[in-house]
Automatic annotation (TrEMBL):
<dbReference type="InterPro" id="IPR017853">
    <property type="entry name" value="GH"/>
</dbReference>
<comment type="similarity">
    <text>Belongs to the disproportionating enzyme family.</text>
</comment>
<dbReference type="InterPro" id="IPR003385">
    <property type="entry name" value="Glyco_hydro_77"/>
</dbReference>
<keyword id="KW-0808">Transferase</keyword>
<keyword id="KW-0328">Glycosyltransferase</keyword>
<dbReference type="GO" id="GO:0004134">
    <property type="term" value="F:4-alpha-glucanotransferase activity"/>
</dbReference>
<dbReference type="Pfam" id="PF02446">
    <property type="entry name" value="Glyco_hydro_77"/>
</dbReference>
<keyword id="KW-0119">Carbohydrate metabolism</keyword>
<protein>
    <recommendedName>
        <fullName>4-alpha-glucanotransferase</fullName>
        <ecNumber>2.4.1.25</ecNumber>
    </recommendedName>
</protein>
């Protein structure tokens, strides 16, 4: 292997991949070179290449332990690398946090798990069995003879945190779309709190949320929750004024609530959110809350705020503002209200409660990127290769993390990101979970758009998910739609991570839908999500009309897609009619078809079944059309009815689904 090829391998630059068509695609050397250059490496500098190859390969065998040592259950073995001539030496292991001090008198009888030859010397890796250590991260000192080395031992459970092995049913929502009881234009935590009671009354076990990440207060029309300012912070627009203690006896707030701006907003009934207006008004109200806190807060509340700031220093410090304390206050209020909603779920007997959603990346001009810029590549963004739903591939415009930089400071960036998103919820859905194994990088090569797969430290990122899920008692769902390598599916399954299936895409080889009993069991099964049309719009072809209306497709394309849709509807009817006695046809009412489909899927063995509130609300408009930005009002469409009205109208359907699932 030549030096450059070795560096491609050691740096995680992919060589080939299997396209969705089954075709093997091999990346050109120019493409792979460009990926390395995006990591700040001069591919024409032989000395730099040689140095990196040594550091990433040979040098690792000349250290007793790496910076991070994975101690995986149930083996609990710590691996040490030594010159084989040191086997007679004793080994000492000290973990002060656990009051653990172990000594091995010799390494001669220890199992050898690897070897490496360098300059005529054989280096070996030996495995030391340690006693059980609770899940977590522990600083350890290793001594071999007179040689000392430090490592951080990660005690890694076999699987992520688990809930009882029963069929669970939940609701999928985009929080901002809920009809706001306060009439302030955007669904908030008070609406979510009310929804927990409605879901509990129907024996639902969880509420799947959209990403609640911090967006851009100074650019409120940047509304995509999947291109956030920071994934470790919350979007203050979800704060409910009425849930804040500082709303009580607040003269300034009461006056503002009677202002023309607020009254006008409360009297509006727009189908799409005007974020510019909503954000301006809500932030004015937030300032009144903060003023009240500054003037009247008790010592107990001030101490609670200080404790919050101290606990979340690392993430709060990423904020940039003229009034940081105000922004910290908003994060505190959002944190408290999210926690209140999860507390309600648990008290009402829901098995999981809230399930958060973690976006695959952050915006290239946001706080997360700016404060962690050294961890990111240069001039590369993430996306996806061609697939059946995007033949040209996708470029999501999110900066790509450098796989070698992720290990900095014991992977603290990823650890804190996962921890932040598992707090105050019972589950975490990870958007595009393949990112913990590999990501498609988009960049330019010789002036043309190009791309390839880049591989990440899979074992370590998976270990973090396992550890953090146990610490936070949070289940994990990995969104694995698209091109997924088999080893990722296998690893996720063996780790107890739920997959995520959209029924639309669960097909047999002949394009017919899978049989009910063949639908995957260990998964979150949904009819639709935020990236596909709501069911009524899909059945009535409204989504195609909308695309034509917004000039996203022309008349001929619309006709072709309509023909394909009819074929898909016929396949769906064959699936439904095979599972019920009442025959449906193409002239059937959309909601009758939807209800039949939902009842069919309730019979599946899928552990998690999610109903989308948009479908229960009989929505026609998609909340998002992939591949569009300003062409269509993405992430703005609100529900037509209140949650109470939606649940009342669908009470019999929800009861029937519950009876099937719990029967």
């Amino acid at each position: 292997m030549d030096a450059l090829s070795q560096l491609f391998y050691l740096h995680g630059i992919g060589y080939e991949f299997t396209k969705y068509t089954g075709e093997q695609v091999v990346f050109s050397e120019d493409t792979r070179k460009q990926a390395l250059q995006c990591c700040g490496i001069d591919t024409n500098d032989a000395n730099q290449i040689a140095h990196l190859n040594y550091e990433l390969d040979a040098a690792t065998w000349q250290q007793l332990v790496p910076c991070v040592s994975l101690l995986e259950w149930p083996e609990n073995t710590l691996k040490i690398r030594i010159d084989e001539r040191q086997q007679h030496l004793c080994v000492g292991i000290k973990v002060e946090a656990l009051d653990l001090d172990l000594a091995f008198q010799t390494m001669r009888d220890l199992p050898v798990t690897g070897e490496y030859y360098l300059h005529g010397v054989r280096y070996i890796e030996v495995a030391l069995e340690l006693p059980f250590i609770p899940a977590g991260y522990y600083d350890a000192t290793i001594k071999v003879g007179e040689q000392f080395s430090n490592t951080q031992v990660w005690s890694v459970p076999e699987q992520v945190y688990q809930v009882d092995d029963i069929k669970l049913t939940g609701l999928s929502i985009q929080l901002y779309t809920l009809k706001n009881k306060a009439l302030l234009g955007v669904g908030d935590f008070s609406d979510l709190l009310s929804l927990t009671h409605l879901c509990s009354a129907q024996n639902m076990d969880y509420i799947l949320l959209n990403p609640l990440h911090l967006l851009f207060a100074d650019m409120p029309e940047r509304a995509s929750p999947y291109s956030p300012n920071s994934r470790a912070l919350l979007n203050p627009l979800y704060i409910a004024i009425d849930l804040c203690d500082d709303a009580n006896n607040n003269t300034e707030l009461n006056a503002l609530m009677q202002s023309d701006d607020v009254i006008s907003l409360m009297q509006s009934n727009d189908q799409f959110i005007n974020y510019e207006n909503v954000s301006r008004i809500k932030y004015t109200l937030f300032k009144a809350l903060y003023s009240q806190f500054e003037l009247t807060a008790s010592n107990e509340r001030r101490q609670a705020f200080t404790a919050f700031c101290n606990t979340h220093t690392s993430t709060l410090n990423t904020l940039e503002s003229d009034n940081l304390t105000f922004d910290y206050y908003l994060q505190w209020q959002a944190y408290l209200q999210l926690a209140l909603c999860q507390k309600s779920c648990i008290e009402l007997g829901m098995a999981i409660g809230l399930i958060n959603d973690l976006a695959v990346g952050c915006a290239g001009d946001g706080a997360e990127f700016k404060n962690q810029q050294s961890l990111f590549s240069q001039e590369a963004s993430v996306g996806a290769p061609p697939d059946p739903w995007a033949e040209a591939g996708q470029n999501w415009g999110l900066p790509a993390l450098n796989p070698r930089s992720l290990s900095n400071n014991h992977f603290e960036f990823y650890r804190s990101l996962i921890r932040a998103n598992m707090q105050n919820v019972g589950g975490l859905r990870i958007d595009h979970v393949m990112a913990i194994r590999r990501l498609w990088w988009c960049f330019e090569t010789n002036g043309k758009q190009d791309g390839c797969y880049v591989y990440y430290p899979f074992e370590h990122l998976l270990a973090i998910l396992k550890i953090e899920s146990h610490i936070n008692q949070s289940i994990v769902i990995g969104e694995d739609l698209g091109v997924v390598p088999p080893e990722v599916r296998d690893a996720l399954a063996s780790s107890g991570i739920f997959s995520n299936s959209l029924f639309y895409f669960e097909k047999q080889h002949d394009d017919e839908f899978l049989l009910v009993n063949d639908l995957p069991s260990r998964c979150l099964l949904m009819i639709a999500n935020h990236d596909v049309p709501p069911f009524m719009g899909w059945w009535q072809h409204d989504d195609l009309d909308i695309k034509q209306q917004y000039s996203l497709i022309n008349e001929q394309q619309c006709n072709d897609l309509t023909h394909q849709r009819v074929k898909e509807q016929e396949r769906l009817l064959r699936f439904i009619n095979a599972n019920q006695t009442k025959e449906l046809n193409l002239q059937a009412n959309a909601m009758d078809v939807y209800k039949s489909l939902a009842l069919c899927l309730a019979k599946s063995q899928s552990r998690l079944l999610a109903l989308q509130i948009d479908d229960l609300d009989e929505q026609l408009y998609s909340v998002n059309i992939p591949g569009t930005d300003t062409e269509y009002p993405n992430w703005r469409r609100v529900l037509t009815h209140t949650c109470e009205e939606i649940f009342s109208k669908n009470a019999s359907l929800l009861a029937a689904i519950d009876s099937i699932r719990k029967g």
